[in-house]
Amino acid sequence: MSLARKFSTTVAALVFSALLGSGAQAQQSTEIQLSYKDKKFTPAEVTVPANTAFTIKVKNLEAKAMEFESKPLKIEKVIAANSEAVVNVRPQKPGTYKFVDEYNENVAFGNVVVK
C-alpha cells in the first residue's frame, strides 16, 4: 500500500470516527435531576428542548414512598423512601407539562417547560 493511500485511509477513518462520535452525542437524551423533600420538588421547574427525548431522575429524600406522576407526559412511577428512580420521556412539543407527587398533589408539584 502506498504512503498516499495509507494516509487517505487513515484520514477517512478519523473523519468517520468523528462523525460517529458527534452522532452519538446528538442521540443522547437530556437528563433532568429532581429531588423531593418536605413535599417539595427541587427545582420546581425545569426546561428541556422540544422534540428531544429526555430523562427525569427523581431522588426521593423522604421517609415515605411518593408517586411521581405527570398525566400530560403520560408517566407514573412509585419511588420508595430514600431512593431514586429514572423515568424516560419521549420527545414533546413545546409547552408546559405539570408533574406532581400523586400522594400530595395539592402541595407537591412542578413543571417541565419544553421550548
Which structural traits does this protein have?
four-stranded mixed β-sheet; single chain; 22% helix; 1 helix; Immunoglobulin-like; alpha+beta; 115 residues; 45% strand; 9 strands
Explain what you see.
This protein is an alpha+beta fold and 115 residues long. The chain has one domain (30-114): Cupredoxins -  blue copper proteins (Immunoglobulin-like, Sandwich), CATH 2.60.40. 22% of the residues lie in helices and 45% in strands. A hairpin with a 2-residue loop joins strand 1 (30-37) and strand 2.
Structure in a nutshell:
With 115 residues, this protein is α+β, with helices and mostly antiparallel strands.
Going by CATH, what is the homologous superfamily?
Cupredoxins -  blue copper proteins
Outline the biggest β-sheet. 5 strands, mixed
Number of strands: 9
Q: How many separate structural domains?
A: 1
**Number of alpha- plus pi-helical segments:** 1
What proportion of the residues is helical, as a percent range?
10-25%
The order of strands across the largest sheet is 3-9-8-5-6
Low-confidence stretches: 11-26
Distance between the termini: 52 Å
Rg estimate, integer Å: 21 Å
Order of helices and strands: HEEEEEEEEE
Helices and strands in order:
Layout (H helix, E strand, L loop, with lengths): L2 H25 L2 E8 L2 E3 L2 E4 L5 E7 L5 E5 L4 E5 L3 E7 L5 E7 L7 E6 L1
Parallel strand pairs: 1-4, 3-9
Antiparallel strand pairs: 1-2, 4-7, 5-6, 5-8, 8-9
